[in-house]
Amino acid sequence: MSDVVKSTCPYCGVGCGLLVEADGSGNWSIRGDPEHPANLGRLCSKGTALGETLDAEGRLTQPMIHGQSADWDRSLDVVAQRFSEIIEAHGPDAVAFYVSGQLLTEDYYVANKLMKGFIGSANIDTNSRLCMASSVAGHKRAFGADTVPGCYEDFEEAELIVLTGSNTAWCHPVLYRRIVRAKEARPDLRVVVIDPRETATCDIADLHLPLRSGTDSTLFNGLLCRLQDQGRVDRTFVEAHTEGADEALQTARCYAPSTAVVAELCGLEQAAVETFYRWFVDTPKTVTLYSQGINQTSSGTDKVNAIINCHLLTGRIGKPGSGPFSITGQPNAMGGREVGALANQLACHMNLEDAAHRDLVGRFWQAPSLASRAGRKAVDLFRAIERGEIKALWVMATNPAVSLPDASQVRRALRQCEFLVVSDSSHNDTTGYANVLLPALAWGEKDGTVTNSERRISRQRSFLPGLEAARPDWWIVSQVARRLGHAGFDYASNHEIFTEYAALSGFENGGSRDFDISALEGLSARDYDELPSLQWPVTAQQRQGTPRMYSDGRFQTPTRRARFLPVTPRPPGGPLTERYPLVLNTGRTRDQWHTMTRTGKSPRLSGHDTEPFVELHPQDAVRFGIEAGELARVRSRWGEVVVRAKVLEQQLPGSLFIPMHWNDQFAACAGVGCLINPIVDPVSGQPEFKHTPVAIEPYRPLWHGFLLTRQAITVDWASYWSRARRDGLWHYELAGEQQAESWSELVRQRLTPNLADAQWAEMFDSAGGHYRGMHIVEDRLQHCLFIGPDHRLPKRDWLVQLFAREALTRQERQSLLAGSPGRGQEDAGRTICACFGVGENHIVKAIRERGLMTKEAIGEALQAGTNCGSCLSEISQLIIEQVAQE
Ligand SMILES: Nc1nc2c(c(=O)[nH]1)N[C@H]1C(S)=C(S)[C@@H](COP(=O)(O)OP(=O)(O)OC[C@H]3O[C@@H](n4cnc5c(=O)[nH]c(N)nc54)[C@H](O)[C@@H]3O)O[C@H]1N2
Ligand SMILES: Nc1nc2c(c(=O)[nH]1)N[C@H]1C(S)=C(S)[C@@H](COP(=O)(O)OP(=O)(O)OC[C@H]3O[C@@H](n4cnc5c(=O)[nH]c(N)nc54)[C@H](O)[C@@H]3O)O[C@H]1N2
Ligand code: SF4
Ligand SMILES: [Mo]
Questions:
Q1: Of 5, 510, 571, 654, which is the most exposed, with the fewest CB atoms less than 10 Å away?
Q2: 386-406, pLDDT tens digit by residue?
Q3: Mean pLDDT of the chain
Q4: According to the model, what pLDDT value does residue 801 have?
Q5: What gap in Å lies between CA 802 and CA 816, rounded to an integer?
Q6: From CA 840, how far away is CA 881, in angstroms rounded?
Q7: How many Cα atoms within 13 Å fall on the side-chain side of residue 64?
Q8: 43 lines ligand 3 (CB under 6 A)
Q9: For residue 208, which ligand has an atom nearest its CA?
Q10: How far is it, in rounded angstroms, from Cα 409 to Cα 388?
Q11: Is the dihedral of CA 305, 310, 312, 316 positive or negative?
């Protein structure tokens, strides 16, 4: 192996290329690959911190049967035996797989092949159902295939970029930086952001439309009409290459008769809507990027088609600098769509309902019992498990106990499932329910391919040996398949799987299916190892891949014409009521990834948001009596959470935002999945994560506190807790409904139980309800606990820094007990720049005292924002706030 390994980031769908190298001190240095076309050397905070997530903590290392370690042979036998017993007794539809966009293509392909071709059920669905399903369905309705037409370069060539339902700055940061740079180079490039919240992405917006949740279809219907009114219909394109324009326009006119009506329905200023329409009308080179604000609603598929309609009417598709662009979430969300791991697809973009496709795949696989009808989609699947209709489930690489809607129902289903297998690389909230637990290789150990948002297939390469007994997912699945008696799973390597898959993509294709990588079917093992990144299709005619699709105006529908869809806007599922008067919107924060199994290990990534929170508008704070910084209880018909309140002007009045990341490992009661309405889009089956009716109220327990400690502990004495990894310590936020009889005794029992003579420095004020205690060993801080009657407690970040001191000074000890930094000691404040660990207070100080008034000047002085740039919008915000204060 050469010293530098080229790989791909395991987080978002941008699919950045990485260079991995041992740094000589036992750690790994991870840099952006300057030659990878997706990122050209750049990385975001999450990619940059990958080295902090490679340790063994939290990993699954051995197979387990009913909580007992077991060897692979026995574990695989048990899985195969229980699956075959259940299939025998109840038929193939009594078993299911629930898989994930975090699997490699090779893993995904084998799992899908086993279920659909050999077990003979289509009960395999993926967490992409929660993510991309509406885009898939929208693409298939419009293009006849699930194909993203454009590529990243289109963003650099566009003159107008519309970002709708996407917080690109935080969720696809490297692509966002490419847009920022394009805008710097060409200031007349305009950016419009459509999002109920004013997100970090709005930093570069020339126009922000804070539309009412769920009203995108109306906005784009209005745009469709306006394009026609202004004579922007591309007649040649529409006549030669599309069908259904008239019906789509007629329907749009019914529901969006005028801009005034659109503005009213969307809750927007009419002038702002006018500006958006004018820019779109006047700019042929337009890219519309969309993500979960579009997909994750009960009318997601219609929203997707409302957007595509506008591009079809103007012929803005398949051309440099223009097109609709659905951006993918997970590193291999796209790969999962290609292998067909959604319950209603087959493989290699073939359709389960198409008899010719079934016949073709059946022959290619020599499948004894190819599934003939669609299986259960994710939400429905877990309902069927709870009803006992599905009796055996195998979960791979996803954490449904947290990430599915109505998560309490999901947990009931997991508990009740007769036989549950979980293969994962780490412990998560789902692994605890498993009858059989199988350890999978993690990123760095696993090896194979992934496909990013622009159809680019890249290699993830291993640079670490597998941890203990962990195995590749494709191996685990193939071993079970063989034990079930199926031929066709004798794979010796991932390379064999990939070439089979490439061969299937080209099998009897003849241009009838977009997804064709048949030019790769003859790759040698060495070619596969060295495979450079390529955008599919990769065919004999297009050996170097295909950056842009549909340039010839020929689509994959039977008529080869793209279809307009008439879109009748529908309101989100749950109506607001007196009891649940607010809209709950959920999504992502800058530095955490999903359910935190990996990013939660990184101190660098945990300093940005150390606690789960709810964002609400100041008007709602007043209306519901919530003070900024206190705890709040948010309730829906399905459950409740307790989280910290952040009061923000950027939030739309009447709506709340809670991040999806916190789970049982990191907080007592913050898993937002338990609140979410399980309603789904009728076409795609995608759930509505962006709109659940909820109520909010203050949560005011008897005491509040925080604990900084070098060891992880159980805090069952608190009714509220959350925790975050900081440098060399754990940071707990706490609150309780019952006072400890003696805090002094509690800290000794819980934190220093084996040290009879542990010296604690303490400060009490029983009347005021305050306690401060710290344990110092050889001048180093080991633990400190602060308790008070309300949430107004000393700043934490400064105390966290004191843990790094080799020897505390006397002054530092005194200020510790006093609870505030003394003269000359600095509180860096909340982490703003995760890459260089620069705190908010340092930045504010540089603005105030050194008069640094630009992001560039701050970057030069403090390094903040000079690596990934994800914090630049926050730095601008701090500058604006300081200027306003002066
Ligand atoms: N940091 C980070 N990055 C990630 C991930 C992560 O966990 N952390 N996960 C990855 C994955 S799997 C995915 S799918 C992507 C998701 O990437 P995004 O879709 O960009 O992320 P979200 O925060 O889920 O939602 C995007 C925005 O939709 C807005 N929205 C809500 N309702 C509406 C609406 O009705 N209309 C419109 N127009 N907008 C609305 C929300 O306010 C939110 O700002 O991110 C990927 N990247
Ligand atoms: N409220 C709310 N909920 C949401 C969303 C939202 O916006 N709001 N978004 C939804 C979306 S878009 C998504 S994509 C989902 C994501 O939700 P999940 O898929 O549940 O989230 P992760 O935390 O990424 O879980 C991935 C698991 O796979 C494991 N893993 C990683 N790599 C491998 C591997 O190679 N093999 C195996 N076997 N295991 C591996 C990790 O250890 C981890 O436990 O959440 C959805 N849920
Ligand atoms: S943008 Fe960040 S998270 Fe996404 S692939 Fe690139 S480095 Fe990874
Ligand atoms: Mo996703």
A1: 510
A2: 999 999 999 999 999 999 999
A3: 95
A4: 87
A5: 9
A6: 12
A7: 22
A8: yes
A9: 1
A10: 13
A11: negative
How far is 595 from 605, CA to CA, in rounded Å? 14
Task: Say how many Å lie between the CA of residue 673 and the centre of ligand 3.
Answer: 25
Residue-by-residue DSSP string for 192-235: EEE-SS--GGGGG-SEEE-PPTT-HHHHHHHHHHHHHHTT---H
Pocket probe for ligand 3: among 172, 328, 443, 870, the residue whose CB has the most ligand atoms within 8 Å is: 172
Give burial (CB, 10 Å; 0-12/13-18/19+) of 394: buried
- Lowest-confidence pick of 431-435, 692-696, 859-863: 859-863
From the list 663, 629, 662, the residue with the least C-alpha distance to 788 is: 629
Give the mean model confidence (pLDDT) for residues 356-384. Answer: 96
Residue the block writes with tokens 């309780």: 736
Is the distance from the beta carbon of residue 773 to the nearest atom of ligand 1 less than 6 Å?
no
CB-CB contact of 371 with 137 (8 Å) = no
Residue 24: pLDDT above 90? no
Q: How many residues does the chain have?
A: 886
Cα 118 to Cα 111, 114, 362, 848, distances in angstroms: 10, 5, 10, 68
Whose tokens are 């809750």? That residue is: 267
What token pair was written down for 425? 């690389």
Q: What separation in Å is there between the alpha carbon of 431 and the centre of ligand 2?
A: 13
CA distance 630 to 2: 53
pLDDT value of residue 608: 87
What average pLDDT does range 67-88 have in this prediction?
Answer: 97
- Mean pLDDT value across residues 423-441: 97
Residue 586 pLDDT grade (very low, low, confident, very high; cuts 50, 70, 90): very high
- List beta partners, residue 22: 28
Q: What letter represents residue 122's amino acid?
A: A
Summarize the confidence of residues 460-481 as an average pLDDT: 97
Question: 835 pLDDT band (50/70/90 cuts)?
Answer: confident
d(CA 428, CA 411): 13
Q: What is the tens place of the pLDDT at every residue in 761-795?
A: 999 988 889 999 999 998 899 999 999 999 999 88
Decide: helix, strand or coil at residue 32. Answer: strand
Ligand 1 binding pocket includes 196 (Cβ within 6 Å): yes
Q: How far apart are CA 701 and CA 712, in angstroms?
A: 24
Question: How many Å apart are CA 739 and CA 485, to the nearest integer?
Answer: 61
Q: How far apart are the first and last CA of the chain?
A: 58
Longest CA pairwise span in the chain (Å): 87
Instruction: Please check whether residue 501 is in contact with residue 361, taking contact to mean a CB–CB distance below 8 angstroms.
Output: no
* DSSP 8-state assignment for residue 319: B
- Which of these, 410, 543, 527, 372, lies nearest to 459 by C-alpha position? 527
Give the mean pLDDT of 498-525: 96
CB-ligand 3 contact for 11 (6 Å cutoff): yes
Q: Which residues partner with 830 through β-bridges?
A: none
Q: Which phi and psi (to 5°) does residue 7 adopt?
A: -140, -170
Closest CA to 761 of 772, 769, 753: 772
Token representation of residue 798: 């400064």
Say how far apart CA 785 and CA 762 lie, in whole Å. Answer: 9
CB 654 within 8 A of CB 721: no
Question: Relative to the CA of 174, which ligand 3 atom is closest?
Answer: 1
Portion of the chain with pLDDT greater than 90, in percent: 85
Q: Is 444 helix (H, G, I), strand (E, B) or coil?
A: coil
350-374 burial code (b ≥16 CB/10 A, e <16): bbbeeeebbebbbebbebeebbeeb
User: CA–CA separation, 792 vs 814, rounded Å?
Assistant: 20
Residue with tokens 């949430």: 791
DSSP state of 19: E
pLDDT band at 577; cut points 50, 70, 90: very high
Contact 639, 408 (CB under 8 A): yes
Provide Rg for the chain, Cα atoms: 27
